[in-house]
Design goal:
The protein contains 15 helices and 34 strands. With 627 residues, it is α/β, with parallel strands linked by helices. The strands form nine sheets. It has a ten-stranded mixed β-sheet with strand order 3-19-4-18-17-5-8-10-9-16, with helices on both faces. It has four domains: 275 residues, 3-Layer(aba) Sandwich (Rossmann fold), CATH 3.40.50.150; 34 residues, no CATH class; 114 residues, Dna-directed Rna Polymerases I, Ii, And Iii 27 Kd Polypeptide, Chain: A, domain 1 (3-Layer(aba) Sandwich); 133 residues, no CATH class. Helix 2 packs parallel to helix 5, helix 5 packs parallel to helix 6 and helix 11 packs across helix 14. The protein is globular, with a radius of gyration of 28 Å. Bound molecules: S-adenosylmethionine (SAM). The site of S-adenosylmethionine (SAM) has 21 residues, from strand 18.
């Protein structure tokens, strides 16, 4: 349950008249629910700092959780941001997936090398995993976006700016929301980012080739920061200075005015159509890529951050993805906040920032939901874990399925949708809908329903609300989904040995300073299950009979992506004293620095390690104490 609710609206200053500019002028379906939630405020949950990287007093944050809850935390702590860039899901109708690469097993490197010569390496080593869903109906999306935007506005400083990155799917609708929230007068520019589609299936459409994103730029007031950006002049323009005066100065005459080449100091002021920033479609093998679907290039963020903030200012991205905003903000001497709901985003960003030498805290919003890796995967898992739940013959859209009871017959089951944060909380508004819309729609022979919830305002209050309502005689059982979610997580298993480090000296092994941990075995049921599912599906679809199932070795070391040792504390906040990341090609990144060596199955540390953390290739992390 949320600790408290934080009002979206700024606290009125005593004696100051305020305009109620939040009363909505647009009406989307489901707006009554939104109104109820807006009145209640942003859910504030406790935040736990799980790791500090670099300087202990850093103000930079990498937050795992929802935008709404992150804003509640910032607002409650009086933290104001100076610049916001967001690239939220676009309502594109797509599900985004991540390719998971099986790593090189240090114990059987030679066999793998041989196998790679014979087989298609990608097929042998990778499978796909869902990251986040972007499938929405328009009304839901806009209501959700409205809440997020007013939450963000409530933590923006008076001089802050916001850039929202969208495309043709929903951009123009969100522009209207932005006008409503920030005021038409604060609309600054619509930026067109020409992503320059030069080849591929997009160019084949019997139509104009669709090749741009839109970025709406608003400010909180006229008093905004704006540092003009100048771009180099084009060759064509420079060639127009083709006359020379008596002193050898090059010039041209335009509109009756003489312009000298040597007076063109700053270049051309940057306009609102950006066609000089390469997207990853044009540079698919860029070293900057971190294998995150929808990752944006650093040059794009560089332009926005340089223009709309100054050094030491706080830059926030509440849908941070691969961490591009945080990385660039840090490079440019700004402070940053990165927020995202997916574990993959948090890990990718953390590792990217470690490589960039940044200091930051990794924080987790304790919203009572063990999100597994991300909401899409958790939803799939939950459905398989509710005992007896069948959904082949769906009662209707509202109910997830039903459980067959020998005495009561079919018992419909409602499961909140984790991908839709608005359905997470069971409150009176939601219960009212169930009592007056969902239950009356059920066939007459239904005697009982089960309502799962993730978060509840108060179980007693909701039960009282049901009994006071008296609109149905049906039995309504409320069940906590967290009990099911707890079963989702089965920790990984590892066997390892911690020894004093040694070195070869005149053919003999002698002890040296430092320690070494050797990993002998690693078992991850979660990953193995994924691979089994992938193999089964691929075999069914393998019409040519050429598919070679992915096999995992006995010691399972190829399922490890990252190791870290903490030599500072045996419990509490993590402190990574030494870490190794194994990239998809098997090369190790040691303490953020890329190398051209393969992993040898060990991790070293200068001091005695107290804890070991291993992240598997799907992103689950497990910790072990070292005695
Ligand atoms: C289009 S991607 C952002 C990509 C990012 N700009 C980059 O360059 O890598 C959108 C991100 O929003 C995250 N997301 C979706 N719903 C969210 C929510 N309610 N709160 C925070 N993050 C969310 C997804 O996990 C995803 O990483």
């Amino acid at each position: 349950m949320a600790v408290k609710y934080i009002p979206f609206f700024p606290e009125p200053i005593e004696g100051q008249a305020i305009l109620d500019n939040f009363s909505r002028t647009l009406r989307y379906k489901g707006n009554t629910d939104v109104k109820g939630r807006l009145q209640r405020g942003m859910p504030y949950y406790e935040l736990e700092t799980v790791e500090t990287v670099g300087k202990q007093d850093t103000e930079n944050m990498v937050i795992r959780g929802e935008c709404l809850s992150a804003c509640a935390y910032l607002k409650d702590n009086g933290i104001k941001v100076d610049l916001v860039y967001i690239d939220p899901p676009f309502a594109s109708g797509a599900d985004y997936a991540k390719k998971v690469y099986i790593r090189r097993n240090p114990k059987i490197v030679e066999e793998i090398a041989k196998a790679e010569e014979e087989l298609d390496i990608d097929e042998l080593k990778a499978f796909e995993e869902k990251m986040y869903g972007d499938v929405w109906d328009k009304e839901k999306y806009l209501n959700w976006m409205y809440e997020n935007l007013i939450a963000i506005k409530s933590v923006m400083s008076d001089t802050a700016s916001i850039y929202i990155h969208l495309d043709h799917h929903i951009g123009h609708y969100v522009k209207i929301l932005m006008d409503e929230i920030f005021g038409e007068d604060n609309f600054q520019r619509e930026i067109i980012w020409d992503i320059q589609v030069l080849s591929g299936f997009k160019t084949l459409a019997p139509n104009w080739v669709r090749g741009h994103d839109v970025i709406y730029y608003y400010s909180n007031s006229d008093d905004r920061i704006f540092n003009k950006i100048f771009l180099p002049h084009t060759e064509k323009y420079l060639q127009m200075f083709n006359r020379e005066d008596a002193n050898g100065r090059k010039y041209m005459v335009a509109h009756g005015q003489t312009r000298y080449l040597d007076e063109l100091k700053d270049g051309k002021p940057c306009g609102d159509v950006w066609n000089d920033i390469m997207s990853f479609q044009q540079q698919p093998t860029s070293a900057e890529k971190v294998d995150y679907a929808t990752q944006k290039p650093e040059t794009l963020l560089e332009r926005i951050i340089k223009a709309s903030s100054n050094e030491e200012m706080l830059v926030a991205d509440f849908f941070g993805g691969s961490g591009v905003t945080a990385k660039v903000a840090n490079d440019l001497g700004r402070k940053f906040i990165h927020c995202d709901i997916g574990i993959n985003s948090i890990q990718t960003t953390r590792d990217r920032l470690v490589s960039a030498g940044a200091s930051f805290k990794v924080m987790e919003i304790k919203d009572g939901v063990q999100l597994y890796r991300n909401p899409v995967q958790t939803m799939e898992k939950i459905k398989s874990l509710i005992p007896g739940l069948k959904n082949e013959d769906k009662v209707n859209e509202f109910w997830e399925g039903y459980i067959s009871d020998s005495k009561l017959g079919k018992v419909p089951v409602y499961v909140p949708n984790l991908m839709d944060s608005s359905s997470k909380l069971l409150d009176e508004v939601m219960m009212n809908r169930i009592l007056h819309e969902a239950i009356p729609d059920l066939p007459n022979d239904i005697k009982k329903v089960i309502i799962y919830y993730i978060d509840i305002t108060s179980k007693e209050e909701i039960e009282k609300f049901i009994s006071d309502d008296k609109s149905t005689l049906m039995e309504i059982e409320l069940r906590d989904l967290k009990d099911v979610l707890d079963d989702v997580v089965i920790e990984d298993y590892a066997e390892f040995e911690c020894k004093k480090a040694t070195q070869e000296l005149m053919g003999q092994k002698v002890e040296t300073d430092g320690f070494v941990i050797e990993i002998n075995k690693f078992i991850s049921d979660r990953v193995t299950q994924k691979i089994d599912d992938y193999n089964k599906k691929a075999l069914v679809n393998d019409k040519k009979g050429t598919f070679k199932p992915i096999e995992i070795s006995q010691d399972g070391l190829e399922l490890i992506e990252f190791l870290s040792v903490d030599c500072s504390a045996a419990e509490g906040e993590w402190h990574s004293d030494s870490e190794i990341k194994i990239d998809k090609n098997g090369y190790v990144i040691v303490n953020g620095q890329k190398t051209k060596s393969f992993w040898n199955g060990t991790i070293n540390s200068e001091k005695k390690p107290l804890r070991l953390k291993i992240r598997n290739i799907c992103g689950d992390e497990t910790e072990w104490k070292i005695e």
